[in-house]
UniProtKB/TrEMBL annotation:
Residues 245-424 form the Reverse transcriptase domain. Keywords: Endonuclease, Hydrolase, Mitochondrion, Nuclease, Nucleotidyltransferase, RNA-directed DNA polymerase, Transferase. CDD domains: retropepsin_like, RNase_HI_RT_Ty3, RT_LTR. Transmembrane segments: none annotated. This is RNA-directed DNA polymerase. It comes from the Eukaryota. One of its GO terms (molecular function) is hydrolase activity. The keyword Isomerase does not apply. PROSITE patterns: RT_POL. Its EC number is 2.7.7.49. It is found in: Mitochondrion. InterPro entries: DNA/RNA_pol_sf, Peptidase_aspartic_dom_sf, Retrovirus_Pol_polyprotein, Rev_trsase/Diguanyl_cyclase, RT_dom, RT_RNaseH. GO terms for cellular component: mitochondrion.
Length: 756
């Protein structure tokens, strides 16, 4: 980024410079920088610099000096001295910089070099060897350079020149087929069509398993709003509509029903199309077809030696909406009304419909040598030969049912695999280590707060741990008044023994699909956490799994409502195999009361809409519990090891200037020079009442009056000014004045944080 207001030649972001392995060199005289309003920058003193080459298209400057600091949005900022030296011509309409100054022509502009073409994806060496068999030895391992058509014609006239052509489409097809072949055992190549992405994009025919939507009598058909979209979202919407119209998955509609649509950002980038079917789900009779009890299915794995796992691609889209009911799936867009011909995500009965279909497809083999849970299929056998035969039978049934698999998510002929949150293998079934990783990796406490959090977490389970008081005695001693914090070997032994007790029996129990589920969640400013628990036969609550995850820099800026909701989402994502298809409602316990009304909220933002679509797959009920009673998940969010330290981007992104100086275009605040001085005692700060020529709109003035009454900090500052106080902890009083009852700081009106 170029900044004509920056007085330094160049600045570079500290984190980005480290990622580029640039050498940091200390400055002899560190200095501070100021932001546009004269305040010192929050990044602190500049103490180091780096030297590196800078290339902008064909413009190159070597050995340039950059000052190292923390930048919010750009890795490099070029200041006014650099702009003066290079004097670029700016094309505002075309968004271009042109470097034609005498300095650049002499020192910076370099002739363009042909760029080498690099592969955009990796391929196995075996495949490269197969390709090279058809290329002469003299041409192998040569650099490939882009040349013009005229050059091709010129070279083709030379006697010793040999060349051949290949299209990108042919390369992609070869890579795709080869990657699929490499994942399939040789004995299963006859079923390669089941692993073809193109076959999975075809519109399935109507079948007995079509999705039926039964409406509650008297229910009002939904008609949702049309949300506004950005240009980028409209472009993505048109592409999504074109693609699904081409596939035949949707068609134009004249339905009286219309659900709203919106886009949400994918975690890895890009936009995801979502339809908000909550209103339709509210008037739909729930399909109670059961998802399988995994505990019963996995009882058949004793003595098995070979395992394979198959993942069905776009599972729901493999089924059609029952003929004549397509109008119920209609959704409104900027480009018209459309309805879905295939079963979309977000419908309340979709999981039950697909489970019924996959059960019918594999019924002859279920619990004999395979089990299916929605789109996940596990095949198990005693010998390799037997396993190949079982795989062929399953794949044949999938082919007959018109179902396709995702080769990148399948495993074949392995001795151990992960299935529905469990590790299954030759040695039996065991819990996924990730379920207890949060507690197992709990770092040694470094302060009193850490010790208190750990003891508070353990107090809930003290009835399951023999001699709990003796174990915690060294830790409890540290919490006493006037006792210095000294972490010795006794404390470390107690800490390690307690962690082991938390993640082993009798405290931690395996998940039981027949019992009710309790999910406790919590979120702090920087961490979200959860504890999954079930009652034993004596009515005692035992944990099944623990979870915690740090927030990203962006997530740290979410409102507390969204942070608490995100904790619930993360737990459902982490424990989907255990929670999806629960026979009775999962009791979700949170300390944020407003979340009880999430499922009835009329208008959601894009993030919440994505979460709502995901949660529609689960049977749950949110219950409020005061925060002081939620010790277990709360302790997992308060560990000092998870809190940001100095330099953490989670802190850097919390305080940012949203509207920078260059974004403002405000009329000046004109004040007449005649002032009415209020009497004040010696040493106090004068309260001046100039006459303003600028009047605030009545509604703004009224809001300010309301806000000023509720802002305690503001009232404290005003009182300090009136009392002539020498200082105030929140603000520099010398830069404050009161004008017509309004507080001005550096000639700017103070606007309180107020939500009417």
């Amino acid at each position: 980024m170029t900044d004509s207001g920056a007085e330094g030649k160049g600045f570079i972001d500290e984190s980005w410079a480290k990622s580029q392995n640039l050498q940091f060199r200390p400055l002899k005289r560190p200095f501070e920088i100021e932001v546009f309003d004269g305040r010192p920058a929050e990044s602190g003193q500049i103490t180091h610099y780096v030297r590196a080459g800078l290339r902008i298209a064909d413009h190159y400057q070597k050995n340039m000096l950059f000052y190292v600091t923390r930048l919010a949005s750009y890795p490099i900022v070029l200041g006014m001295p650099w702009l003066k030296q290079h004097d670029p011509q700016v094309g505002f309409a075309a968004h271009t910089f042109t470097f034609n100054s005498p300095y650049c022509q002499k020192f910076c502009n370099t002739p363009a070099k042909p760029a080498k073409i690099k592969a955009l994806q990796t391929v196995p060496k075996k495949f490269l060897r197969q390709l090279e068999q058809n290329i002469p030895q003299s041409l192998r391992r040569k650099d490939i350079l882009p040349i013009s058509l005229q050059a091709v014609r010129l070279y083709s006239r030379r006697a010793r020149c040999r060349f051949f052509t290949v299209t990108l489409e042919q390369i992609d097809r070869a890579l795709q087929n080869k990657s699929e072949d490499l994942r399939l055992p040789e004995e299963l190549r006859e079923f390669q069509d089941i692993f073809s992405p193109k076959e999975a994009e075809k519109l399935p025919p109507h079948r007995a398993g079509d999705h039926h939507i039964e409406l509650i009598p008297g229910g009002k058909l939904p008609f949702g709003p049309l949300y506004g979209m950005s240009r980028k979202e409209l472009t993505a919407l048109r592409e999504w509509l074109d693609e699904n119209l081409r596939k035949g998955f949707i068609r134009p509609s004249s339905s009286p029903v219309a659900s709203p649509v919106l886009f949400v950002k994918k975690p890895g980038g890009g936009l995801r199309f979502c339809v908000d079917y909550r209103a339709l789900n509210n008037i739909t009779v729930k399909d109670r077809y059961p998802l399988p009890l995994i505990k019963e299915s996995l009882n058949n794995l004793s003595g098995m030696k070979y395992f394979s796992r198959i993942d069905i691609v776009s599972a729901f889209n493999n089924l059609r909406i029952e003929k004549g009911q397509e109008y119920l799936t209609a959704f409104r867009t900027r480009f018209g009304l459309y309805e879905s011909l295939v079963m979309p995500f977000g419908l309340t009965g979709a999981p039950a419909t697909f489970q019924r279909y996959i059960n019918d497809a594999l019924r002859e083999h279920l619990d004999i040598f395979c089990t299916a849970y929605l789109d996940d299929i596990l095949i198990y056998s005693r010998t390799r030969e037997e396993h190949i035969e079982h795989l062929k039978l399953v794949l044949q049934r999938l082919r007959s049912a018109g179902l396709f698999a995702n080769p990148s998510k399948c495993e074949f002929l392995v001795k151990e695999t992960k299935f529905l949150g469990l590790i299954v293998g030759q040695e039996g079934i065991r819990m996924d280590p990730a379920k207890v990783e949060t507690v197992k990796n709990w770092k040694t406490p470094t302060c009193l707060t850490d010790v208190q959090a750990f003891i508070g977490f353990g107090n809930f389970y003290r009835r399951f741990i023999r001699d709990f008081s003796k174990l915690t005695a060294p830790l409890n001693r540290l919490t006493k008044k006037d006792v210095p914090f000294i972490w010795d070997d006794t404390c470390e032994k107690a800490f390690v023994r307690l962690k082991e007790a938390f993640i082993t029996a009798p405290i931690l129990r395996p998940f039981d699909w027949t019992k009710d589920v309790i999910l406790e969640t919590d979120a702090s400013d920087y961490v979200s956490a959860g504890v999954l628990s079930q009652y034993d036969n004596e009515g005692r609550l035992h944990p099944v799994a623990f979870f915690s995850k740090k927030h990203t820099a962006t997530e740290c800026n979410y409102e507390i409502y969204d942070k608490e909701l995100m904790a619930i989402i993360r737990c459902f994502e982490e424990w989907r195999p255990e929670l999806e298809g629960a026979p009775s409602p999962i009791r979700v316990i949170t300390d944020h009361k407003n979340l009880e009304y999430f499922t009835t909220t009329k208008l959601l933002n894009r993030r919440q809409a994505r979460w709502s679509e995901f949660l529609s797959r689960f049977n749950f009920q949110i219950t409020y519990r005061p925060g002081k009673q939620g010790v277990k998940p709360d302790a997992l969010t308060r560990r000092s090891e998870d809190l940001p330290k100095e330099g953490d981007e989670r802190l850097a992104h919390q305080s940012q200037v949203v509207l920078k100086k260059e974004n403002w275009q405000l009329p000046p605040l004109k004040v007449q020079r005649a002032r009415i001085r209020q009497p004040h005692r010696q040493g106090s700060i004068p309260i001046e009442e100039p006459i303003l020529s600028l009047e605030l709109p009545e509604d703004i003035s009224r809001l300010l009056d309301q806000a000023y009454k509720t802002d305690e900090d503001l009232q404290s500052i005003l009182q300090a000014l009136k009392d002539g106080a020498p200082r105030h902890p929140k603000i520099t009083l010398a830069e404050c004045t009161i004008i017509q009852g309004r507080l001005l700081y550096r000639d700017r009106i103070y606007i309180p944080d107020y939500d009417p």
